[in-house]
């Protein structure tokens, strides 16, 4: 075995990774809760697959135990986390069916825990998010996409809402003016907590629909699922190739950002 461990956090429409050999369920206990994942091998690398909404899409965005999920991936010491996210799009150059390797976010959530560092079990810490997504993992995804001729979009700003409702057209107009490109419900606090834990994390965002008010028709969850199904074979291919290309060592500052993390407290 290479010693390289890669985690995949699957979003809406991504509930399995078909390519794993010797796949089995593992459960990881953390102080925030127990997390079930599928574990297997792909090209000599250990892969852990964690469907964010549960295997049957039973956990809504605002009820996901983000802390337990990231703490579990920290416990098994993954080298990188690749996550997927279904999103609405505000931009014609990121149409439904495209794949965007996002590089910024705006937090529009309201009532979820946003940090491990609450001053009790962990210290009071202010982490830097000038570059919120790991540049090394982003680079691996972009280069892999290029090798597969996939035309990935390099960069985009993800606006995270509380959900589970979709947005109003007025909210979308405001987000557009702020510089938001895509809108979804789960990337915050996942990306923040990954950095707090010192884990390299990047997201492939998959626009499934034009956002409210831009779309000519009312939004439907079924529409999101149908578009995800259409894109799934190509996405599986991309993720598998990314797993193969993740580097054993990174020169980013993600690991260093996790220096305040404490397993004991
Ligand atoms: N808004 C928020 N989340 C989403 C959307 C949307 O339009 N589409 C897919 N996830």
Describe the protein's architecture and organization:
The chain is an alpha/beta fold. The chain has a single domain, classed as Rossmann fold, CATH 3.40.50.1580. The protein has helices at residues 66-75, 135-147, 169-178, 187-196, 221-245, 254-257, and strands spanning 5-10, 21-30, 33-42, 45-51, 80-89, 100-101, 104-108, 153-154, 157-161, 182-184, 201-210. Strands 1, 2, 3, 4, 5, 6, 7, 8, 9, 10 and 11 form an 11-stranded mixed sheet that branches. A hairpin with a 2-residue loop joins strand 3 and strand 4. Helix 1 runs parallel beside helix 4 (187-196). The protein is globular. The two termini are 32 Å apart. The model has no long low-confidence stretch (mean pLDDT 93). Residues 86-88, 166-167, 183-185, 208-209, 211, 219, 224 line the site of hypoxanthine. Hypoxanthine binds at residues 86-88, 166-167, 183-185, 208-209, 211, 219, 224.
Please write the CATH class name: Alpha Beta
Order of helical and strand elements: EEEEHEEEHEEHEHEHH
Mean pLDDT: 93
List the total number of helices: 6
Class inferred from helices and paired strands: alpha/beta
CATH architecture: 3-Layer(aba) Sandwich
Give every kind of bound small molecule, once each. hypoxanthine
Name the CATH superfamily classification.
Nucleoside phosphorylase domain
Helical content stands at: 25-40%
CATH topology: Rossmann fold
Mind describing the biggest β-sheet? Answer: 11 strands, mixed
Number of domains: 1
Distance between the termini: 32 Å
Number of strands: 11
Strand content: 25-35%
């Amino acid at each position: 075995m290479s010693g390289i461990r890669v985690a995949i956090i699957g979003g809406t429409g991504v509930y399995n990774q078909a390519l794993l050999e010797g796949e089995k369920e593992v459960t990881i206990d953390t102080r925030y809760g127990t997390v079930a994942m599928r574990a297997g091998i792909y090209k000599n690398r250990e892969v852990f697959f964690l469907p964010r909404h549960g295997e049957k899409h039973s956990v809504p965005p605002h009820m996901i135990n983000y802390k337990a999920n990231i703490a579990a991936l920290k416990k098994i010491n993954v080298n990188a986390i690749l996550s997927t996210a279904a999103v609405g799009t505000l931009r014609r150059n990121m149409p439904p069916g495209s794949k965007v390797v996002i590089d910024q976010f705006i937090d529009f959530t309201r009532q979820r825990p946003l940090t491990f560092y609450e001053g009790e079990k962990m210290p009071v810490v202010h982490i830097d998010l000038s570059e919120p997504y790991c540049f090394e993992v982003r680079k691996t995804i972009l280069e892999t996409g290029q090798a597969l001729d996939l035309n990935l979009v390099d960069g985009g700003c993800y606006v995270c809402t509380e959900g589970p409702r979709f947005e109003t057209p007025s909210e979308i107009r405001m987000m557009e003016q702020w510089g938001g490109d895509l809108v979804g419900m789960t990337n915050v606090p996942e990306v923040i907590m990954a950095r707090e834990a010192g884990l390299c994390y990047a997201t492939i965002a998959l626009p499934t629909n034009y956002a409210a008010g831009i779309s000519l028709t009312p939004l439907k969850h079924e529409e999101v699922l149908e578009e995800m199904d259409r894109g799934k074979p190509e996405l599986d291919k991309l993720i598998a190739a990314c797993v193969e290309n993740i580097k054993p060592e990174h020169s980013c500052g993600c690991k260093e950002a996790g220096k305040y993390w404490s397993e004991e407290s």
